[in-house]
Amino acid sequence: MLLTQYIKELLYQYECVTIPQFGAFLTRSFGIKVDNDGLFYPSKKEVTFNQLLLANDGVLAHYISQKEKISYESALRNIEKEVTSWKKRLQTQTLRFPDVGEILLNTEKKIQFTPSGKINFDLNSFGLHIYERKPLLNISVNKPKTANIMENTTNDDFMFTPEQKGNQKKSPFLRYAAIGIIGIALLGTSYYFSDRYVTEQRIAEQEKAQIQIEKNVQEATFDLGSINSVSVSVSKNTPNEVILNQPYYSIIAGSFRYLKNAENKISTLKDEGYPATLAEVNPKGLYRVAYGRYTSKKEAINMLYFLKYTLKQEAWYLEER
Length: 321
Fold this sequence. Notes:
By secondary structure, this protein is an alpha+beta fold. The protein is 35% helix and 21% strand. It has helices at residues 3-11, 59-68, 72-90, 172-218, 259-271, 297-310, and strands at residues 16-19, 23-30, 33-34, 39-41, 44-50, 95-97, 101-105, 111-115, 131-132, 164-165, 168-169, 248-256, 277-278, 287-294, 316-320.
C-alpha cells in the first residue's frame, strides 16, 4: 500500500493528516517574504509532526478506500498493519516519507521529525519560485525643446491670451490637455472607489444574510401534523430525562424545539434499527436526538463513520460530560 504517497497527496488539501495510533502531519503557513538581499519568497506551507495526535479522524482511511476501491474497515486494517511495521523499524532505523520528511528516535528515545523542504504544499503558490529583485536603472529623459512661437505682428485679436514668461509664449493646448488628463484621472478614481464601496456593501449584506440563515436553522421547528393526545403516567425519573452520571459519546441525528417532535424522530430511528435516544439538551433548549449514545468513544466514532461514509447520512459527534 502506498501509504506515504497518500499522506503526501492529502497534505495539499488538509492542514492535518492523522495516522491512527502513530501521529499527525501538520502544515504551517508562512506569508510572502522579502529579505535584505532583494530575494522574494512566495507564500508556503511547511510540514511538522505531532506524535500526540493519535485519534483517527477518518480522513486518511476514507481517502485510501476511495483510491484502492476497498471498504473503509479494510483501509483501517491496512493502516494498522503499516503502523505496526513503522514502529518496529523506527527502533533501529530512520523512517523516510518522500518529499515530506524523515522520522527517527533521538538519544532520549523520543520521535524527532526533520522536514524535507523540497515541496511547497501551498496550492496558491503553485509554479512560483524564489526570484531576485534587480535594482531599477536611472533613466534620464531629455526635455523636448520648446518651439518658437511667432509674434502677433498684425495685432489680430486672439480668443485666448497666452501667458508669457520672458520672451517665450506657451501654447494654450498644453494647458487644456493637462486639464483633460486631470479630469480623466478624477473620473477613474471616483469609479474605482464607488465600485469598491458597492462590492464591500454586497459582501456585508451577504454576511448578514448568512448569520440570519444560521439563526433560522437553529430555531427551526418541524410540523408533523396533529397528534391525538395520550395520557401517560410518569414516574420520578422519566425515560425522556437524560441523566449524565458518566461521560457519553453521542452521534446526533437532529435537534428539535418540541419534545414531542424529538420523540417521533426517536421512534422512526428505532424502527430503522438504531438504538436511538435523547442526548443532552443544547444551551438554547433544543432537544437533541441521537442515533445512539455510547460509553465507548471508539464505538461512537465507528458509528459516525458508518453513517457518513457508508450510508451517506447527516450526523455529528457530541461528547457529553
